[in-house]
Amino acid sequence: MVTDTTRRKLLRAALGAAALAPMTSALTACSSTTSATRATPRIIGCSRTAKGGYAVVVAAQDGQPIYRVALPGRGHGVALQPGGTLAAAFSRRPGQYLQVMDYQSGEAWPIRVADPGRHFYGHGVFSADGQYLYVTEGISTTSEGVIGVYQVVPGLPKVAEYTGFGIGPHEAVLVDAQTLAIGVGGVHTQGRTPLNLETMQPALVYLDARTGALLEQVTLADKRLSIRHLSVTDTGEVACGQQYRGEPEQAAPLVALHRRGEPLRQLLANDEQWLRFNHYIASIASVDGYLLATSPRGNCYGIWHEASRELVDIRPLVDASGVGIFQGEWLVGSGSGKVLTVAPPAQVTGSQSPVMWDNHWNVLPV
Fold first, then answer.
1. Dihedral of CA 57/30/72/128: which sign?
2. 134: burial class by Cβ within 10 Å (0-12, 13-18, 19+)?
3. What is the C-alpha to C-alpha distance for residues 94 and 121, in angstroms, rounded to an integer?
4. Containing domain of residue 23, as a range?
5. What is this structure's pTM?
6. 20 to 30 Å CA-CA from 328: which of 37, 139, 154, 340?
7. 294 with 285: CB under 8 angstroms?
8. Per-residue pLDDT of the chain (366 residues; tens, 9 = 90+)
9. Where in the sequence is the signal peptide annotated (predicted)?
């Protein structure tokens, strides 16, 4: 087994020169077409490269890349700074780095390596004022959840830690200026190998963003549903996407909605439809009373009517990945490079990009 200390030594050796280089050293402009280099940045997300490497990519609305910032390993989620131009890309769990960059200029900060004995879970979110970054982390030996609070200045000094809310946190979102919601997966892992599937305790938890105090915790009846990916809907509810850790042939509802002070409400579909998602939901976004959720493992995405919770449509999309909102429509990406514009409830147009997008992306502000 590769220990956390060993991973850190290897990563530090690989990144040492890069961390001391000028901030623009990792930037690669994408000049395959004149129109792409002149396009307005609209999308940012992690990706795989054609040569087997990894990068965070800023692209136009049709997915054509404008520039890339190289990453030392596979990335996962990306967070945007409110009122600013910074983005943070997080390494896939159990990750050992996070990368902050200016998404307008492409200038990259020195990489921040995980603290000793810790790993990143692939997600984070900026504070409402953009001055702090809340990052989902774990203690490597136990998977005990940690929210690392980092000051948003070069070097990203950690100024606080929030603990005591569960094992295996994954995505965190800001519900309002004072409140964090966290999808706690409940799974203790060694690397990516689960060790406690029979006793896992997933939950959706709310923390005071200023103090880390636990404000509320809700659970699903089926403890094999690991709560992972989150989004705040246009009506202020938290949508959560699950990974089912039970029997492969068993169907399970994979998306739920929650309003503070109420129980979780699962979205509706029949067993055959839930099985289409292959037990995993990646990205979620809500617009005009409809919710879209992607499944890279199921090679599809689904659309639900929020008020009725009823499934409107399931559409095929190879390696369906990120989703975001632009001008009242969904932008949906895929690991195959396909980029869709979907108007609620299900009107679709598409384009092809050369970017092999990872599971998540963000739509940049106008």
1. negative
2. buried
3. 6
4. 4-363
5. 0.91
6. 37
7. no
8. 334 443 444 344 334 433 333 333 456 766 444 344 457 889 999 999 988 899 999 999 999 999 999 999 999 999 999 999 999 999 998 999 999 999 998 899 999 999 999 999 999 999 999 999 999 999 999 999 999 999 999 999 999 999 999 999 999 999 999 999 999 999 998 888 988 888 999 999 999 999 999 999 999 999 999 999 999 999 999 999 999 999 999 999 999 999 999 999 999 999 999 999 999 999 999 999 999 999 999 999 999 999 999 999 999 999 999 999 999 999 999 999 999 999 999 899 999 999 999 999 999 997
9. 1-28
Reference 146, options 154, 158, 155, 137; nearest CA is 137
Nearest 5°: phi and psi at 10? Answer: -65, -45
Q: For residue 232, give both structure tokens.
A: 């705040």
Question: The domain spanning residue 306 has which CATH number?
Answer: 2.130.10.10
Question: Which of 292, 352, 344 is closest to 323 using CA atoms?
Answer: 292
Reference 108, options 117, 119, 124, 97; nearest CA is 97
Backbone angles phi, psi at 271, to 5 degrees: -60, -45
> In Å, what is the CA distance from 312 to each residue of 290, 315, 327, 344?
9, 10, 21, 10
CA-to-CA distance for 326 and 78, rounded, in angstroms?
17
For the chain, the domain total comes to 1
